[in-house]
Amino acid sequence: MAFWWALIVIVFAFAICKLLLMLIPSNVPSIDVDTSDVLDDGNHTKENSFIYIPSRRHTDKVQCYEPATMKYLGFLPALKPDEVKERVAHARKAQKIWAKSSFKQRRLFLRILLKYIIEHQDLICNISSRDTGKTMVDASLGEIMTTCEKIHWLLSEGEKWLKPEYRSCGRSMLHKTAKVEFYPLGVVGAIVSWNYPFHNIFNPMLAAVFSGNSIVIKVSEHASWSGCFYLRIIQTALAAVGAPENLVEVITGFAETGEALVSSVDKMIFVGSPGVGKKIMRTAADTLIPVTLELGGKDAFIVCEDVDVPHVAQVAARAALQSSGQNCAGAERFYVHKDIYSSFVAEVVKIVKSVTAGPPLSGKYDMGAICMQEHSEKLQYLVNDALDKGAEIVARGSVGNIGEGAVDQYFPPTVIVNVNHTMKLMQEEAFGPILPIMKFSSDEEVVQLANDSKYGLGCAVFSGSQRGAKQIASQLHCGVAAINDFASSYMCQVLEV
Predict the structure, then answer these.
(1) Which of 125, 197, 349, 405 could bond 139 through an S-S bridge, CB–CB 3.0 to 4.6 Å?
(2) Residue 458 maps to a domain
(3) Does residue 14 form part of some domain?
(4) Could you give the percent of the chain with pLDDT greater than 90?
(5) Bridge partner residues of 365 (DSSP)
């Protein structure tokens, strides 16, 4: 599974990037970004060669380390509220200048970034992998391809969406005209998660800067090291087009850093847990700023009786591995029709038994490490609760050659059957490589099961009948539905508008 999946993704990504590179005008300048302090050449000094032992206590520093090896990467400051407000003030001054920039200047900024990303994708993926534990293939798919597609969409469509629009005045006001004009908001704040450290910074930044705003981004304490390097790329590209300094800022810290950001900006974007999302909404209510939230997921993966079982089992296994603690929430609940349940489970078991987790940069593992400290304990707690209530583990993947200090950062992919909705595993977000598979008998039953959740991020429905799959999906209470596919909507930027 690892070889063919990696080969397909790499070939596809290479082809897409080659095509995009051909679309960049030849006169777009290249930028030179200092990488001397982020390249792993194996010659570590005494200060940054030791194995890091995570502390459960927050300090005035954000400690950075490689989850896959527990190798220490250094530390970054945990900014205090007054320091955050100072950064926002600088960004506000820069935004007043940038608001007068032309779309031509903004497009040049995007093209410079696109050129750098395509030419340095190995570097970007390597840094993402070191900071989060994800494999290079997952980084290529989730970091590079999605970001390039975002840039390409903004280049071709962004100005159109920001142009003034004339609207109908209605019958009683036929002699009048009405027009909607779009103006920059000011300073956008973003608190982003660790699962895609490159894309999660670039996604809000690209839209904010292209629309004339500045942005201050608080990166996760679990992925701060890479975030500060990615800022270096952005700032170098901005300088190349004559943009003001401090237009884009990346800040590091813990909860008080994020709270100070929310209370200082003109719009807030947050990607993370529902609990933190509620706190952000409460803080934003004090200043009545608009808030965009992308919270947790417990996506249902529904398999009807008329599918190609081996093919869909492959997709299901990959969807679960997407939830390996480094990537997106992925699929977390699998509902399979009773007529194909046994054959589907057998196929998934065969696939998962061949999966091995290990240090991602060695290049021979399907899965990397889990990014967050102590997350393996949570995953094991959810599995134990299910086992206590009658579930059964029918397959587990293996863990490769890892150092003693990094053992707790790995969780083997696990297939569990005989699950039901009394189990926490089917109700709480796991964010781990676990496949709990439950059978259903009818469309009505599976709709009821899929909607029995406090989450509503997305779903996937597989059926030999497009019409039947769409009928099921139309009844599910979620934001994004994929038909005979999984997570493809992330590449469709028009759905993000």
Answers:
(1) 125
(2) yes
(3) no
(4) 73
(5) none
User: Tens digits of per-residue pLDDT, 16-54?
Assistant: 766 777 778 888 999 999 999 998 755 444 444 456 666
* Coil, strand or helix at 434: strand
pTM: 0.92
Q: Number of structural domains, the chain?
A: 2
Task: Output the average pLDDT for the chain.
Answer: 90
- Reading phi first (left if > 0) and then psi (alpha if -120 to 50, else beta), residue 297 is in beta
Average pLDDT over residues 113-142: 93
Same domain (yes/no): 281, 330: no
How much is the average pLDDT of 8-13? 66
For residue 452, give its domain range.
299-491
Write the CATH number for 351: 3.40.309.10
Q: How far apart are CA 379 and CA 347, in angstroms?
A: 23
Report the b/e string of 242-272 with b at 16+ CB within 10 A. ebbebbbbbbbbeeebbbbbbbbbbbbbbbb
Residue with tokens 């380390």: 65
Question: By the 8 A CB rule, do 187 and 92 touch?
Answer: yes
Active site members:
294
Give the span between the Cα atoms of 468 and 448, in whole angstroms. 16
